[in-house]
Design brief:
The protein is of the alpha/beta class. Helices cover 41% and strands 15% of the residues. It is built from eight helices and seven strands.
Length: 223
């Protein structure tokens, strides 16, 4: 079993090194996709022991993930684990994703934060719930936390699906495409270092939730 951890990063020089260090204790191969950062993210990530791919311009989280997935396929990895560069996700929880993948045979495993929703801000909680309901309606798959970026993607899924999203909507797009292809999507509860990540996250609850819902509908209808 060959695993790779993918960390999309944008202006994350202040936070990415501890994420890499903690992740490498579980998954030695860490790939940081520097999404056109304006700071020293690439340099810091390289010094922390990650392999770094730097995008020439800031293109969005989805574009960074797609670049990482392409690398994972080229490396013939069995699966790719994604986590954020801002320290929201606990690398120590990665074994939960791996265990769920091995036990269920799912093509996509999502680290669910739904049990922590009461600790989120009202706007973040509303965005999560709205996107979750839209996704469940159009995909037919009950996903407790559709917006979690803490995930495990089986290599077969990455090879089979043609993903298009450039922003946060890609993480919902992949759920719809997986459901349409008859692939299993599973979830497992995870703990977080930060529930909201307001100081470090680039997620915009209202605008990005709207983009996610639009992408879900467009993906379902085949565009």
């Amino acid at each position: 079993m060959k695993l790779i951890a993918i960390v999309p990063a944008y202006d994350a020089a202040a936070t990415v090194a501890p994420v890499i260090a903690a992740t490498r204790r579980i998954v030695p191969e860490v790939l940081v996709i520097d999404d056109g950062s304006r700071d020293r993210t690439a340099e810091v990530a390289h010094r922390a022991g990650a392999r770094v791919v730097r995008l020439a311009a800031h293109r969005g989280k989805g574009a960074a993930l797609r670049a990482g997935f392409a690398e994972a396929i080229a490396m013939e990895s069995s699966a790719a684990i994604t986590l954020d560069a801002d320290g929201q996700h606990e690398p120590s929880e990665i074994p939960r994703l791996i265990a769920c993948w091995q036990e269920t045979g799912a093509s996509l495993v999502i680290g669910s934060r739904v049990h922590l929703e009461t600790e989120m801000t009202r706007s973040r909680r509303f965005g999560n719930r709205f996107a979750r309901r839209a996704l469940t309606y159009f995909s037919g798959v009950e996903v407790p936390d559709a917006q979690s970026g803490f995930r495990l993607y089986d290599a077969a899924l990455l090879r089979a699906l043609r993903l298009r999203g450039s922003g946060y909507e890609l993480e919902s797009e992949v759920i719809v495409r997986a459901a349409r292809a008859g692939m299993r999507v599973a979830s497992t509860p995870v703990c977080l270092a930060q529930v909201n990540g307001l100081a470090t996250s680039h997620y915009r609850p209202w605008r990005d939730t709207a983009r996610i819902c639009t992408a879900v509908v467009a993906t379902w209808f085949g565009t």
